[in-house]
Specification:
The complex is a heterodimer of chains A (297) and B (375).
Chain A lengths: L1 H17 L7 H30 L3 H7 L4 H34 L5 H8 L1 H4 L2 H12 L4 H8 L8 H27 L2 H8 L4 H30 L2 H7 L9 H10 L3 H37 L3
Helix pairs in contact in A: 2-14, 4-9, 4-11, 7-9, 7-12, 9-11, 9-12, 10-11, 11-14, 13-14
Chain B lengths: L4 H10 L6 E10 L2 E11 L4 E5 L6 H9 L6 E6 L2 E2 L5 H4 L1 E4 L11 H10 L9 H14 L15 H14 L4 E5 L7 H18 L2 E6 L2 H7 L2 E6 L2 E6 L1 H6 L4 H6 L4 E8 L2 E4 L2 E3 L9 E7 L4 E3 L7 E10 L4 E7 L5 E6 L10 E6 L3 E4 L3 H8 L2
Parallel strand pairs in B: 3-8, 3-9, 6-7, 7-8
Antiparallel strand pairs in B: 1-2, 1-4, 4-5, 9-10, 11-12, 11-14, 12-13, 14-20, 15-19, 16-17, 16-19, 17-18
Classes of the chains: A mainly alpha (297), B alpha+beta (375).
């Protein structure tokens, strides 16, 4: 009895020495990694590579020619304009929402937190349609605005509104947990030391959330430039006027102008890659700041 | 300890012994919960006062009302006789040390300390070199010379505490407020800092108020202790007064150990389990009451003179003698009595006990029962 116990113990010991309890066999590891890598390769890297290959299929000059098209240039300008309006707007709205949720308690707070996620859970096409219903020619506000000569749907304001709606959660969702974790005590300390509310905001609040804020803005920007569904519904696809890059890609593709379509797609894909790169860089820096905060002696 | 010429100069310039504070009928509600109920309190210039109470007693809320971080629903706060109730927190010049220090994580220690001077409006702001000199002076005052370039995350808990204090002192506060100043520290550092805070108080002669739930801390440090319970002040007094003349069952139970016995009062006589206790009832009405006494205030009496009968339940040898656990006859309560080896009782023996000192309070509310059970 005692001896079999000893034998068992020795056996277990030798097994433990070979690999930890949570480590799988070499074979299982190989299979799992190959599945993950081939899935990523097939569904992510290959399409991305195809975009670049197709775009340069008829040579570099054909690729460049795609950008000489005035419609293409107008689409690029419009996309930049939309991002330039909706990203700062959501930076402000997101900051306000995160601030009020993290630092105050008020009735309906949990409802507000749920509503912030609405643009993520609702299909973009549906949100586009809602805007058409509200601001369109027959809509509630549409009549008011058209009476004053302002067109919202099938014009730039509609695209901006739809983009703001779709990209709203990015900044807010990034900041809420961060600000909740930090609480208000540092702000209170600044106030007791004589700092005004605004000084406190710039010298204490913003430095504490800057990485999270930047991260949220990056994701918001990527989505604002790439949004298709909601924008497609409200834009009306007017060439040279209300076509953003994603809409332009679709039009060119439907016209079998694949080089031009993929050239525009390359632009979007590069934007995505740059965003990913910056995001990784931020995560790396941000994680450093986080561990610095948690470090104790 | 090095003296802080600057703070001394400033405080003498302002006033020799700090500012007086008066809290008058302050009440604060958080929804249906009354955090402070009719709190009135006078603090003398230069006094070191502890706000003592269990969690939820309102002690931190009171501190925040004095700091100006909470606006009371009713009542007023006076600084040196001046109504400061509606004075914004920025203009109160209170040096506040927060429970977890609340240091600015993204600033160096030196920048943390300089913060209060740098955010002043331009015409009141000292020149950069004056600020730097002041920061160095404060750093050496809190014994952190040479650590100015570190970040808070690179400091120990005790060091962070000192930075928080230096930052609060930098603005030449009229009053120093500390919220659970030693709460997050381990026992040894706590003791050092406790002594050190006493010294800081003596040197700066600032009116100082600190919040604590630790009665030892309050009794050891403070000139006067304010005992709070459920948003009300139970008693204000020196440590001696609280130990010797506790004014309520709560105070006697919360400050030091106490044993409670249910008794009945009839015509000025106190009866427990059929025997009379020789306690002055101070004109207490007839009816149920409770007697409170410290474990040290009960002794073995001569045979026949016992007020309370006890039975020895267990005996344990200690270095000094024998510790007997004694069950009180007629009530489900035990107490421990130490006696020398030669006089030790035997197991199961019945022994007479008498009280040398006790306090009696009428038994009324259910809250009262809870307090008695919590001993």
């Amino acid at each position: 009895m005692a001896m079999s116990d000893t034998v068992l113990a020795t056996n277990m010991k030798s097994k433990i020495r070979r690999r930890g309890a949570t480590e799988d066999t070499r074979f299982a590891r190989f299979v799992l990694i190959s599945i993950a890598v081939s899935f990523l390769g097939l569904f992510l890297f290959a399409p991305l590579a195809v975009v670049f290959v197709e775009a340069s299929g008829k040579g570099f000059y054909a690729f460049l020619d795609a950008f000489r098209d005035p419609d293409a240039q107008s689409a690029i300008r419009l996309t930049l304009l939309i991002a330039a309006i909706s990203v700062p707007a959501n930076l402000m709205f997101g900051l306000c929402a995160a601030w009020s949720i993290a630092k105050f308690s008020f009735p309906g707070k949990s409802l507000l937190i749920t509503l912030i996620d609405l643009p993520f859970s609702v299909s973009p096409v549906v949100s586009g349609l809602v805007y058409v219903l509200v601001f369109g020619a027959q809509g509630v506000f549409g009549k008011f605005f058209s009476a004053h000569g302002i067109q919202i749907i099938f014009a730039v304001p509609g695209i901006v509104l739809a983009t703001i709606f779709v990209t709203f959660p990015f900044v807010a969702r990034e900041l809420i947990p961060l600000m909740q974790e930090q609480g208000t005590v540092e702000e209170e300390a600044a106030l007791t030391l004589g700092a005004s509310g605004l000084t406190t905001f710039w010298t204490v609040t913003i430095p504490n959330i800057k990485w999270g804020l930047l991260y949220g803005v990056l994701l918001c920007n990527a989505r604002a430039m790439g949004e298709f569904g909601a924008v497609s519904v409200v834009s009306g696809h007017i060439r040279g006027l209300t076509n953003t890059i994603p809409l332009q890609v679709e039009i060119l593709y439907n016209e079998y102008n694949s080089v031009a379509a993929f050239a525009m797609a390359v632009l979007l894909a590069s934007l995505a890659l740059i965003t990913l790169g910056l995001k990784t860089l931020l995560e790396w820096k941000y994680a450093d700041a986080l561990s610095g905060r948690a470090r104790k002696h | 300890m090095q003296t802080l010429s600057l703070v001394e100069q400033e405080s003498t310039k302002m006033k020799k012994h700090g500012f007086s504070i008066r809290v008058d009928g302050v009440e604060q509600d958080f929804g249906a919960f009354a955090a402070l109920r009719d709190v009135t309190l006078d603090i003398q210039p230069g006094e070191l006062v502890a706000l003592l109470g269990p969690s939820g007693s309102g002690k931190t809320t009171l501190l925040r009302v004095i700091a100006g971080l909470n606006l009371p629903d009713r009542g007023r706060v006076y600084f040196d006789g001046e109504d400061a109730t509606n004075l914004p927190v920025q203009d109160r010049r209170v040096g506040m040390v927060f429970q977890n220090y609340a240091l600015f994580k993204h600033m160096t220690v030196a920048d943390n300390i300089a913060y209060g001077l740098r955010v002043r409006p331009r015409r009141l702001r000292p020149a950069a070199d004056v600020i730097a000199a002041r920061v160095n002076e404060l750093l050496s005052f809190v014994q952190l010379d040479g650590l100015g370039k570190r970040f808070p995350a690179q400091l120990s808990g005790g060091q962070r505490q000192r930075v928080a204090l230096a930052r609060a002192l930098a603005i030449e506060p009229r009053v120093l407020l500390l919220d659970e100043p030693f709460g997050a520290l381990d026992a040894r550092v706590r003791k050092d800092l406790r002594r050190w805070l006493r010294e800081v108080h003596q040197e700066t002669s600032l009116t100082t108020i600190f919040v604590t739930h630790d009665q030892d801390e309050a009794m050891e440090l403070a000139d006067r202790v304010v005992v709070l319970n459920e948003g009300r002040i139970e008693q204000i007094g020196t440590p001696e007064e609280l130990y010797d003349r506790p004014s309520s069952p709560f105070v006697i139970s919360f400050v030091g150990e106490a044993v409670a016995l249910p008794v009945t009062v009839a015509d000025g006589h106190v009866k427990f389990a059929g025997r009379e206790l020789h306690i002055d009832t101070h004109g207490l009405r007839s009816g149920p009451a409770k007697v409170f006494f410290r474990p040290a205030d009960i002794a073995v009496a001569a045979v026949g003179n016992g007020e309370i009968e006890g039975r020895v339940e267990s005996l344990r040898r200690t270095p000094a003698g024998v510790r007997a656990t004694i069950a009180i006859e007629g009530y489900d309560q035990t107490l421990e009595i130490d006696s020398p080896v030669e006089h030790a009782a035997s197991l199961g023996e019945k022994i007479p006990l008498s009280l040398t000192k006790a306090r009696i309070f009428p038994a009324e509310s259910s809250a009262f029962e809870n307090i008695a059970d919590g001993i």
